[in-house]
Amino acid sequence: MPGLFFYKLFCKRALVCDMISIMDKYKYLIIGGGIAGTTAAETIRGKDIEGSIAILGNEKYPLYSRVLLPNYLEGTAKKEDVFLRKEKNYKEKNINVFFGNNAVSVNTKEKRIIFDDKKEIFYEKLLIATGAKPKKIDISDFEGPDVFYFQNIDDAEKLKEKIPEVKKIILVGGSFNAIELAEAFLKNGIEVSLLIRGCSFLGGAFDDASNKIIEENLKEAGVSLFFNEEIEKIKRDDVLKNVITKKGNVYSFDLLVFAIGIERNTKFLENSLIKTREGVVVNEYLEANVPDVFAAGDVAEFYDVVLEKYYLFRNWAAAFLQGKIAGLNMVGEKTLCRHVSGYNVVNFGLNISFIGDVKKDKNTKVVKRGNLENKEYEQLFLRNNILVGATQINMNKEKGIITMLIDRRMDLSSYLDKLNDVNFNLKDIIN
Ligand SMILES: Cc1cc2nc3c(=O)[nH]c(=O)nc-3n(C[C@H](O)[C@H](O)[C@H](O)COP(=O)(O)OP(=O)(O)OC[C@H]3O[C@@H](n4cnc5c(N)ncnc54)[C@H](O)[C@@H]3O)c2cc1C
C-alpha cells in the first residue's frame, strides 16, 4: 500500500499539522452561540477575513430569538420566525460551529478550552458569551415531568406539547418573563395562577402605584394573582397535584412553571483565573482580568461608564451591542462599551419598561409622574440629582429622551420641582 504510506507521510508532514492547527486552534474562539456570541463572530469576520473563528455552544441549534419564544408558545410566532440563522450562514462566513458542546473548563495559561467530551481547543482570543439560565428551586421533590423552567427552544417545544392536555398552570415569579408566560398560557385557554413571593412585580423596582396597574391589568385579563406566597411542598397522587405554600395555602395544578430569576453561566470558569462575581467581571472594553479574554451579553458584569459602576444587563439589545463591541476589541479596534439599556414588554396591552439602573438604594431619589386614570405612570430614579434610571407604564413616548438624559448625566437640580408634572416636557431640559 505505497500510496497510503506516502499519503500518511504527506499528512504527517503537512496536512495533518495544518488540519490540527485549523481544527484545534482558533484565532478567535467564542463560547456561547446566542446573540452576543454570534454578533461577535460576525463582527470579527467583517474585520478579519482570514482569521479562524469558532463558536462553541451547548445548544444544538443555530442562533434563534429567545425574545420570540413566548410568542412561539402563545402561537403568534411560527418556529421558522424564531430562527435567525441557518447553518449555511456560518459556513458562508467561514465561521466554524460546535453546536451541542459544553465548555467545562478554561486554562488561560495554556489558552485551552476543554469540552465535556474531553475534546480540547486552543485559542488566541477568547470570548465568553454564555448567557444566563433560570434559577432552580433547590428541593428534589420539585423535579418531575410537570415542572418546567423556560429558557430555550427545547423548553418551548416541551411546553407546547403539554399545552393541549393542561387546564391549570401555576406560574411562580413576578418577573417580566413570568407575566409574559402568563399571557402566553392564558391565550392558549389555560387557567393561570401567578404566585409571587413578595408583594410586587419585577423585584421591587416598581412602586405600589405601578404594581397596582400591572396587577389590575393581569386580573382583568383573567390571571389569578397571589402575593406573599412561597411554595414549600408539592403533593402528587394519581389524581391530584397540589402545591402547599409556607402560609399553608393549597393550590392545584397540572403544570408548575418557575420564572424566579436567573443565574449567569460562569460555573465552568470556577477553576480558572478569570474573575467572576455574579457574572464575568470585565472592564468598559469588555476585557476580563486575564489577557485576551473578553465577555459579552447576559454573562458580562461590565464596568458601565454611564452608571459609573459594575452592572449586568439581561436584554437582547444590550447582548447584541456588547457582542459587536467585544468583536471589535478582539480584532484590536479599541471600542468603549457605552450604552444605556432597558427592557420592555407589552403585557395584555400594557406597555411596561425599565431603562437604566432601577436598583434603589439609600441615595436614590424617586420622582413619580403620570396620569393614573389613564394607566400612564413613570418613576424617575435620581442619584445626586443625576437621572440614572426609570420605570414606565404606557409612557414609552418618553423613552428616547429619558435614555438621552441618563446618558448625558446632567445635573437636574434646577428641574426637581418640575419633574413630577407630567405636562413638563422632559425635552425642555436639553433644548
Ligand atoms: C423566555 C425569554 C424571553 C425573553 N424576552 C426578552 C424580551 O422580550 N426582550 C429582551 O430584550 N430580552 C428578552 N430576553 C432576554 C434575552 O433573550 C437575553 O438577554 C439574550 O438572549 C442574551 O443573549 P446572550 O447571547 O448573552 O446569551 P444567551 O442567549 O443565553 O446565549 C448563551 C448561549 O451560551 C450557551 N452556554 C452556556 N454555558 C455554556 C457552556 N459552558 N458551553 C457552551 N455553551 C454554553 C447557552 O446555552 C446559550 O445557548 C428573554 C429571555 C428569555 C429566556
Q: What can you tell me about this protein's structure?
A:
The chain folds into three domains: 200 residues, 3-Layer(bba) Sandwich (FAD/NAD(P)-binding domain), CATH 3.50.50.60; 125 residues, FAD/NAD(P)-binding domain (3-Layer(bba) Sandwich); 82 residues, Enolase-like, domain 1, CATH 3.30.390. The protein is 27% helix and 29% strand. The N terminus is likely disordered. The longest helix has 23 residues. Strands 1, 2, 3, 4, 5, 6 and 18 form a seven-stranded mixed sheet that branches. It is built from eleven helices and 25 strands. By secondary structure, it is of the alpha/beta class. The structure holds flavin-adenine dinucleotide. Flavin-adenine dinucleotide (FAD) binds next to α2, β2, α3, α9 and β21.
Q: Helices and strands in order, then pairings?
A:
Elements: H1 2-24, E1 25-31, H2 35-47, E2 53-57, H3 69-74, H4 79-82, H5 87-92, E3 95-99, E4 103-107, E5 112-115, E6 120-128, E7 132-134, E8 147-149, H6 153-162, E9 168-172, H7 176-186, E10 191-195, H8 208-221, E11 224-226, E12 231-236, E13 241-245, E14 250-252, E15 255-258, E16 262-264, E17 280-282, E18 293-295, E19 300-304, E20 309-311, H9 316-330, E21 342-347, E22 350-356, E23 364-371, E24 376-383, E25 386-393, H10 399-408, H11 416-419
Parallel strand pairs: 1-2, 1-6, 2-3, 6-18, 8-15, 9-10, 9-15, 10-11, 17-19
Antiparallel strand pairs: 4-5, 5-6, 7-16, 12-13, 13-14, 19-20, 21-22, 22-25, 23-24, 24-25
Helix pairs in contact: 2-9
Flavin-adenine dinucleotide binds at residues 31-37, 56-59, 66-67, 69-70, 102-103, 129-132, 150-151, 177, 265, 268, 297-298, 314-317, 319, 343, 345.
